[in-house]
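Following up on my earlier thread - several people asked me to post the actual chain instead of describing it. Fair enough. Here it is, all 110 residues.
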Amino acid sequence: MDITTIAHKIEEKIGLLEYGRSELQGKAKAMAEAMGEYDRKIAIRILALKESGSYPATLIEKIAKGDCSNELVAMELAKAEYKLSSQKLQCVQAEMNGLQSINRHLESTG
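Reply from S.P.:
Thanks for posting it. Predicted structure:
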């Protein structure tokens, strides 16, 4: 590889990092919203179960969590997507670091 090719690839990685950063912000927002929705649904369900008086107090939280399992899945999915996006950015950064090292080597020998 020559210096021009390496420089072009570094520019591509910079573009990927910029895109990934904005994507990560969106994933962070989605994760926070999913977490808030889960907490809200749990609280509402716990209050409803307490008001009904049909269940022992020790079981109310477990029942509420079971009733809100869809929200829990959505929250866990949002967390996983955020983590995956973060790891993708780290991979691109590592690739760019490697290219920069190759570029420095080519510049010093060439």
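The helical segments are 3-52, 57-67, 69-109. That should answer part of your original question.
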